[in-house]
């Protein structure tokens, strides 16, 4: 793909963290190739509709396939022109003219710069979006596997960064899975929503095609496997914004998982670990370090994605028929955003696929709370007998005592007559049993897994 | 609605520009009322599921209906507690206890602060969202009316803020309508997506309810007319973000229309005017001024909406089971965002409903271009005979001559032998006829109107 | 202050988390009072400059001091007018007219709505900003105290959320202090930069005052203790943006400290704790919980501040002499932003002033790394003898062995001939001594403390 | 500069719109060269401080000068490592080792990845920032020239996009100049604020250097012409954020000017025009079009800059000693932001230097208002006699009559007995004289020009 294009001012590292296939779908070469593909298909569709001679169209198609572009020169001229499309069309026309001056008359006929750049954006975004959906599926499947595998593995829930009550690690993974399951269809819909041809000509009315406008539009859409829409979307940028935003929501899902993994991987917690492996997570100066390098990628993506999405949301009100400063750079904003999305999703799919889970550490951390994670259960049980205010006060004092004396809450409870007396003998053990305190978790796990199966069924 | 609540530090003007019904749905009183409604319904559902005595639940319901809250005191205590829900539950419990110490044991039983605040958010957002959909429908209908009425009224398209080629004002309004039509269903879906109960208890597992958790959830959802979801969404904030973002896209649609109206209303353009009326658009110092005061509201909303949406997108990765600094203030962010949305939509619905259109001025501005708006048509026609490069160069020189000599392009064309000779006699008039240069516009208008009818049919 | 104003649609809770004095400086009552103060001072200055009779000015001053406003009605009318200032001036004029129709002629004379609203913004922001500086000073002083007190208390540094090498807690606090020290002067400068009068009249030229314009401006600035600037800043919003951004940077400083405190306060780390106290950090359902409720406030502020600042940055390009949709709502954006700033700073000042530090836990966590925190020191020392590649590889294997066998790195090192042989006897102990591995930390601590003293000296 | 580096996945077009010198300062090659320069200077400074043999340092310097890097391979490995610095140091070390295994031991000695990447950021940003200051100076000088030249050229002020009262074009340019003058020093200060060495080693304490840490730091800072700071800023990102924000404020200044120029250039207004010239502002399909292609660039930059700045503001709270997901990509965010800044400033400097101003059109547009621009002057004059309420009402009716009857306000005024009678004969002409209605404008112009001279004097 890359060979036909020449560059001399590369900015490779911008996509440093991007997933390879997405970077490939969105890099400069792919953008220029998509622009060329649009011009070729436009000529072909126009010829089929009777607008221009089929021989000329064939020349345009042939030259577009092998055209060479000097990206640095295009960038320079784009600065003068205000859009990449103007120097691009000029360069393509010159190459067509070298083969056939007659065909060169018809390059870009009836179209406007924005038709070229918007449709090229669409053509690049489709494979990138499909790759993102694959990554989402991988991420979901790996979360589902953890959900099933650890459904009965007790660990401490943490709220506001403090241990709260017992959950299972499978249930925690089910929350992760729910994020992925909820985001899949909306992203897929926003991607399908952007599988649309842009063709309006200079002001959106396709005036150059006269009564052949509908035919050209239909044939071009078919040729590019895009949908035709009721009216040109030169000034209607909601679809791009929605796609960008759904990508930012996917980044958020990856980052939520990454946040949890990085926190669990802290040496003092040590309940779960990203997979290591060649060059992964090492330090340039600390030989022993094992950094959460995959979570890092997802969290890094999440630092940029909301603002990149906001840029697209801030570009929804272009002036009149075609605006002054919006469509001209949206491809680049979307490239950064989808690149970040691929980076985060690929990283967390890999992280969950190879996640090393330590149930022993999970249990040990639970135990280290000295039974305080049972305080809610105890308070609820005592409430039934003593009323909530008294129960809450009593449990608070029991907890304080347990902390002060470094004893388990169960012992402190058993020592306290009022408390012990409020709970029948046969209920006491259950109050301090992790498995008995998971509440609705097993059913929730089953519901989320079923939901994920439904998402997967719907997409195939 | 307001009467039961007391305040002493009002910040009324924050919602200065918000549409009244939306402000009412989202103001402090409504939030506190929704929180009380959640606690009442929770008690009732729990009683029906056998968790607590029905008599106690009835007391909670009765007291919640008439409870009084000191918002300023709650705000002060919320700062200590890190969430509004903690002092709220305390205040409600105290009022229930005054009626029945027994019932007071059960207030908020099994729930966590976030259950209260998230479900209250949902309950407030639903009527606000329905009001937004009404405004969208009004905006769409008014755009549809303009589309039909002015489908054959020629005006100049403007691209990059410069006159380009002829369009009709109806076609321009059809673009506005397409924005509204495209945004309706996604917003409605995001609103339905947020018609969900939040009930998880302290860590999300509903442990306090034991095997009655599913029943309580189902009964509570029914009572509040919300959907139950597979798993608590304490850490899954995508739905809130998506709703906020769709609101920002609606703001964008209103702002796009506002941008165009404000530009058309410039004294030097003077093609369309917002309705005036009592106190609308006047100036504090310039008696003659008629400001685009409605467009102002939509554009003001659009300055804030993208960033408010970005805040929600930046809050997608809370820590572990319940995060440290996201859900605590999302209601306030969403309130500002939906308030802005209502402000913009209501303003532009009113603007389009009363829009004064001046077809004579539109035509006059077209004529002032001295036929330059026909340059593309001419260039395209000449391309067929002379090839694009020659045609483009020739037309550029004709345009320059027309400008230099302040003559109409048609005359300059007729004076130029090469140009005139390239177009048969019977085609020449058509080249300079506005109606003949609308291309696909009439069909596009029909397609967009049909699309809007389909949107309206789907919602009823 | 509040008494003269009436309200009936309060939105109190918007500033739920704001520091009280800042909320007071920026609430609706303060805004309306500042607008009244502007109008009174304008009348007085104009009278002194000979523009209007001093008796009329005195009436305006007197009435402005005791004027009543119905904020809800103003909000409704502001929606019609596009700015709060128009209905405000109308309401004030009516009250002046009730005292003196003659004086009423001169209310707001020569000014425009934006003069009133911008100068009122300035008048409200100044005390809010001074309060923020007090909070910054408190935060800095408390960080300085910790810096001094714990300069020799060893703890593990953590990079990428993993234990790295030893530092002292005082050094860590010095980094916190450096954030505060670096942000103080820029914020103070941005506040002083906004101590500016806005007075331009309808288009900025003060035409109504003729050759008395400079005198009116000078006298008004003196009266309000503001600076006069070379030209009206109706269209120049950089100063507001800069103030907002510096507030966001202060929020960032508070949030950085909060992030660290919340992480240190995790039960599994347990090295430092926010102060508890009445109602602080408790849970609505978990009696034992002690949440990082102060850090929560700073982190919550940091979720909103960057986007609020971005809104101000997005409003830097208003149209022509006075824009359509920027100045109209900037007070409200700045109110939210400064409110967030006060919330975060006050919280972290309180947190650091009462911070409970556990040096024993810090040491224990260091020890739990089994000497791995010395791996860099060891690798560096071995590099000198064995070369970096070999040293790095060797240390990696020693670390792996220590982990595998749950032994201290020192022992593993002593068992390994190559490693041990590469370090002379008398240097070995030093390699595993926390105090010996603090590098430049003691000097850095001294430098930062000196820097903070210099900041404090400069401000007094 | 570029020759030593090899690439195979270029993303050239990301900086499509950036000013060439800034793109050159910030492109991949410059970043890698700056990283190499840091490593070379670190070795040299360390040797001078006695940490390593000077011969080894000299090898490192020599190899760094000619080192080759495969950017695509680095990008791939950076994804694994979580930072570009790790594979970079590895690649450099390998090249040094090929010359001297002994020297290779010392590459990057004592430093951490973030030292390399942060200092390289600083080294790249300094020349980029100086270029930006040159562009600001050019923009200011061109605005100053317009200010002087057109100080007495009357035109209509426009507020809320409607004609208001007369101003001069020179006064309008003085407002532009004030933006530039106000932003110069803060940007320069933020740039100087970032002329700082980053050197802390793995955790910030420079432990590897022992008591030579201060010496190494001082010598390295001297070598790189940077300042040493009291403590490592690994976790203190305020300086980067402030620089980014000041760049966004500069973008705002350029965009404000661009907004006005693009609006003045509308065909229906036609008061000022960007310079044309080769390939500048043409259309791909409309031969007659002259687009505001320079203003486009500034406005495009302003769509992205606030959000890029917000990303930096959102990255102020990294975890502990070195964070998980902030510093790793800030160079790329800053590159986009400074690139946008250079694009906008260079465009508007060029636009103002070649601006074609049409005083005749300005006067004609004033005249087209039929004297309504004098309504404030008239109302103010009548207020003095009739009181403001009566005056305002009367002038409103005179304006309405003028509009209705398409007559000049002066004539309508002269026909109205009440109005005419309220103004002495000798004052009437002055009321309708543009030059007499400029108020304080001439003095404001002088003040702003003096202010700009002071800015220029301060910087030299």
Keywords:
460 residues; 6 strands; homotetramer; 64% helix; mainly alpha; 5% strand; two-stranded parallel sheet; two-stranded antiparallel sheet; elongated; disordered N terminus
Structure, described:
4 copies of one chain form a homotetramer. By secondary structure, chain A is mainly α. The first copy, chain A, is built from 19 helices and 6 strands. Chain A has helices spanning 20-26, 28-48, 54-66, 71-81, 85-99, 101-104, 113-149, 169-193, 213-224, 238-264, 293-313, 330-353, 359-368, 375-386, 388-405, 409-415, 417-421, 425-431, 441-459, and strands at 5-6, 69-70, 154-159, 162-168, 272-273, 356-357. Chain A has a two-stranded parallel sheet. A two-stranded antiparallel sheet of chain A has the order 3-4. In chain A, helix 7 runs antiparallel to helix 19 (441-459). Chain A is elongated. Mean pLDDT of chain A is 91; it is low at 1-12. At the B-C interface, helix 2, helix 4, helix 5, helix 11 and helix 12 of B face helix 2, helix 4, helix 5, helix 11 and helix 12 of C.
Structural shape of chain A: elongated
> What percent of the residues of chain A sit in helical stretches (DSSP H or I)?
55-70%
User: Widest sheet of chain A: strand order?
Assistant: 1-2
Name the largest protein-protein interface in this structure. C-D, 105 and 105 residues
Distance from N terminus to C terminus of chain A (CA atoms, Å) equals: 29 Å
Describe this structure in a few short sentences:
Four copies of one chain form a homotetramer. Chain A is mainly α and 460 residues long.
